[in-house]
Amino acid sequence: MKKTSFMKRLSLSFPLFWLTLCCFILGQFIKSLKEADGTSLSLGLEYFSLLLGTILLGLTLCELFSRILKDAPINLMKSIIQTLQLRHFLYQQEVSKIKMNSNTHSPNPITAQFNRSMRKSMIDITQHQVAVLIKVPHTQQGQKLLKTLEGQIKEELSSRNTAYFFSEFERHKNGLWLIGTRK
Questions:
Q1: This prediction's pTM
Q2: Which of 7, 54, 107, 117 has a 20 to 30 Å separation from 36 between CA atoms?
């Protein structure tokens, strides 16, 4: 199975958005210092954030026009919202373990790696189908955790998309796919 154009654009858009925001804020911060050397750097950061913002706007408009021509634009919003909801649903809270001699906690590497993989999950909703892509963690423990959640994931997606009938999970390379077709 291949990623849809929405999934490709979305995987570029989120990091691009955060990079644009960070560059803009950093440029404004440097500008507020009012140092002579900082003005050229802040101007460069502002232009760079403007360039990144233009690219982000172009990606968004391409997807919007694609949806207008081939599908309903409301499905674009549904896809984005459900992608964020799925990522939130899949996020695993780790139990912090306090070390005996200090007040610090050591993060669970299995949970951290699992959450890193789940941040790349995506849902593409169209009029005829729902395509769900969940990146499979690299470690055996992470894959075992994902396997235990498959039933809950399918139930969650079925309750959010009642007009679709979902198949079983299919693994292709490092992605776990769930396809829903309209009833």
A1: 0.82
A2: 54
